[in-house]
């Protein structure tokens, strides 16, 4: 009997939806993989600063030993960086995971749990200073694996990371098939997806509109 690879995505109020849903779209399609949204207790959590809701089907205690832990992020000022049940769950799950991963500012939550000291890691570009405070060796790579910890940069990079994970837990052909299935073939209208490409004016605007003033 083939065992199922269990993926747990802990969710909490104010998460960024795509941080969780992007990787979910890739990973839940893999043969032999189950993906579960977990939280303090089953039920709805408010995402994207109150404009969206996601349901956790299970509590932390229902899936204590996932094979893959995938921690999404959210606005830095609204992250649950001192929420003991979440941090305890992450620490305990990490003892048994094959991979412990994060998307965007989810890396700050891994840092708050004490998992990134001396680890090469990435996060949203605006959160590099905070990530350094947790002892991480910050890199601007789209995603990076060190040991069993895999971190992805901002928001959409979680899809890249999930396809990379798919290649490891299945094989390259299946990973490519998943990429094709979700038609992940980015062709953005502007080349402004990183601070160095966007330029100082656009970086300042992003800070003013969202980063410095979360709703």
From TrEMBL:
Note one Pfam family from the annotation.
DJ-1_PfpI
Q: Which InterPro entries match?
A: Class_I_gatase-like, DJ-1/PfpI, INH-QAR
Q: Which CDD domains match?
A: GATase1_PfpI_2
Report the superkingdom from the record: Eukaryota
What are the recorded Gene Ontology BP terms?
regulation of DNA-templated transcription
Give every DJ-1/PfpI domain span. Answer: 6-163
State what protein this is by name. Answer: DJ-1/PfpI domain-containing protein
The species this protein was found in: Selaginella moellendorffii
**Native organism taxonomy:** Eukaryota, Viridiplantae, Streptophyta, Embryophyta, Tracheophyta
């Amino acid at each position: 009997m083939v065992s199922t690879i269990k993926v747990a995505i802990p969710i909490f109020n104010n998460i960024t939806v795509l941080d969780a849903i992007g990787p979910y779209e890739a990973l839940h399609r893999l043969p032999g993989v189950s993906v579960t949204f977990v939280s303090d207790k089953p039920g709805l959590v408010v995402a994207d600063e109150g404009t969206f809701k996601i349901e956790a089907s299970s509590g932390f205690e229902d899936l204590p030993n996932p094979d893959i832990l995938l921690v999404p992020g959210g606005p830095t000022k609204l992250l649950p960086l001192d929420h003991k049940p979440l941090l305890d769950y992450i620490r305990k799950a990490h003892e048994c995971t094959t991979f412990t991963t994060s998307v965007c500012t989810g890396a700050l939550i891994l840092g708050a749990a004490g998992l990134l000291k001396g680890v090469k890691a990435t996060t949203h570009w605006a959160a590099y200073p905070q990530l350094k405070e947790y002892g991480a060796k910050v890199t601007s790579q789209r995603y990076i694996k060190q040991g069993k910890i895999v971190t992805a940069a901002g928001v959409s990079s979680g899809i890249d990371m999930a396809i990379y994970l798919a290649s490891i837990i299945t094989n390259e052909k299946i990973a490519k098939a998943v990429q094709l299935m979700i038609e992940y073939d980015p062709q953005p209208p502007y080349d402004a997806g990183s601070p160095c490409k966007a330029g100082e004016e656009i970086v300042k605007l992003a800070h003013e509109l969202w980063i410095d003033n979360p709703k």
